[in-house]
Amino acid sequence: MARIPIDIKTGKVTDQREIIVGIDLGTTNSMIAYVDGEQPRIIPVGHASNGILPSAIHFDIGGGIVVGHAAKARLVSSPQSTVYSVKRLMGRTASDLTEEQRKLPYTVISRPETGILDIVIDERVYSPVELSSYILKDLKDQASFLLRQEIRKAVITVPAYFSDSQRQATRQAGELAGFEVLRIINEPTAASMAYGIGLSREEAKTVMVYDLGGGTFDVSILRIEDGIFDVLASQGDNFLGGDDIDLAICRHWLKQYAIQEDQQSLGELRVAAENAKIRLSEVTECEIPFRNLVLRLTRTELEELAEPFIEKSIQCCKMALKDSGINVKELDEIVLVGGSTRLPVVIKRLVNEFGIHINDTLHPEQVVALGAAVQADILSGNRRDFLLLDVTPLSIGIETMGGLMDTIIPRNSKLPLRLAKQYTTSRDGQRNIRISVFQGERELVKDNLLLGEFILKGIPPMPAGLPRIELVFSIDVDGILSAKARELRSNQEQELEIRSAFKLDQEEIISRLKESVQFADSDMKNKVLIDARNEAAYIDQNARKFLNNNQTLLLPEEVQLILQKLAAMDALAGSEDAEALQHSIDAFNRETAAIAHKVMDIQIQQSLGGSQVDHLT
Ligand code: ADP
Ligand code: MG
Fold first, then answer.
1. C or N: which end of the chain has fewer Cβ atoms within 10 Å?
2. Number of domains within the chain
């Protein structure tokens, strides 16, 4: 049970955690789940205890939209105003439509400029994103009703092979349905998580995820290590699944019985075939009433009919293994996904072929949604033991002179990690140094996120540049960042621990990354200017020290020249013109070099002086 804090004075629930759902947006069926306390649960939408919502959309005459079982039922009675398999068209353009995809029963048109596909129903044009959003919206509304809480945030799954544009389209569909989409994750990753695979950091495994759904087959080889799910290979057949088996049953019956072959009765026959197939997971033979007939099918017959399709899927598995470079012996387990893996013959074939442990204790059509819910739960911060933190999402660094960001830990560094860097002071006799830790990709700290600050005190007074301050950053597997500063000459040290270094959510991280690209140019210009200003300040400080220390060695006109060049440089340091400032710095260095050399030569002679005199006399 989840613990719910209650305000004792008012009796009100004070801090009910927001539920984040996981959604499997499937080609045939969709499903939504959440974590209740510790247990991932399917939300029983569609008035079905199994929570299956067929991914079908029907447009009725009055302009109403029907989703789910009712829409699926209309596939037979009014196929022209009912859509299914929309997922096949998500984020696709005319050029990546295969021959087979062109055979979809509804009319697909492509937009002239972009080639983006739209679907025509009853002379109206819909985008796949829009159609998918109807399914997601229905899941959202039903779940909000059933959980008595407005559901706003979601994790949505996609096949491992989905391209960026397909993922983007899925995200858009979620947003259109009113969700804040926290993450798009791979279906095989979700399925593995539902079985708890990869949820502990010590675990390292290689898993094959076998997903035989309604219309598609996907197999992925995952390497799971340190909580990172790596897709080593994925293979599949976009037109292989339960639908093929239903059609094979229809053909079998058409040969045996006198059935009319008009569109209506063929549609009904498919429904009957699917029913028979599903019942045969429980019983070894069944009879289905169909119009004036009773159709019979045995499990043995079904297995024979299904065999060629299973064989095809096994060939895909072997290809995926080959692609991944993994030997069957290195595979630790198989995860079963998809309603069609309920065919008992599937497990038999997999055992024969690979002979390793098969995870089949969860309902195969539910595992993806359940795993997505586990991921959602992790993102909501409910699982303190497991932060989904494989790499640093943004760079971490400190503020240096002029407000510049100096990155110490680059983004995407693998955790845990420890990195050190040395700094020094910029002022003579500086006793304290403030260390401000920022996160972000921008060149100026003011555009990044301040994580924390601390002051290293008690540095013994030394000339600027002499103290050696070592800064060590480490981040452990739980994402806790600690920063330690130590002055190496005096051993003074100070430490800072930042527990919430990665509290940003995905959206914020993405928007920050986008900003860093967007402002790259102006950031770079700023950085060049600040670098030049820092250099000018450094030169100014040292030049004045030089003048002070060497009064007796310098001619008045030399002092004059130095002061004049300094004044020119300092005047430009206040301007925004980095180029002119850099020129004045270069001019200063060039024109005073001879004076500096002269003084240095005199100093060297003086320091060698004693022995030289001895030697000469
Ligand atoms: P998808 O991922 O493609 O959306 P699902 O994983 O929900 O689809 O699988 C749907 C398919 O599973 C359908 O073809 C359905 O007929 C099939 N199916 C469901 N239950 C069984 C069963 N007991 N035996 C065989 N096939 C089944
Ligand atoms: Mg699926």
1. C
2. 4
446 and 456 housed in the same domain: yes
Residue 399 φ/ψ, nearest 5 degrees? -80, 130
Distance in Å from the first CA to the final CA of the chain:
97
Q: Cis peptide leading into 416, omega within 30 of 0?
A: yes
Say whether both 420 and 488 belong to one domain: yes
Report the CATH number that the domain containing residue 262 is assigned in CATH. 3.90.640.10
Answer yes or no: is the C-beta of 54 below 6 A from any ligand 1 atom.
no
Residue 77 belongs to a domain: yes
Question: What parts of the chain have a pLDDT lower than 70?
Answer: 1-16, 100-102, 383-391, 477-479, 499-507, 509, 607-617
Domain boundary among 340, 366, 391: 391
Q: How far is the CA of 454 from the centre of ligand 1 (A)?
A: 58
β-pair partners for 335: 209, 359
pLDDT digits (tens, 9 = 90+) for 327-379: 999 999 999 999 999 999 999 999 999 999 999 999 999 999 999 999 999 88
pLDDT digits (tens, 9 = 90+) for 147-177: 999 999 999 999 988 888 898 899 999 999 9
- Of 391, 424, 447, the domain-final residue: 391
* 129 and 203 together in one domain: yes
Residue 171 lies in a domain: yes
Range of the domain at 279: 243-304
Buried b (16+ CB within 10 A) or exposed e, 167-196: bebbbbbbebbbbebbbbbbbbbbbbbbbe
117 CA to middle of ligand 2, Å? 22
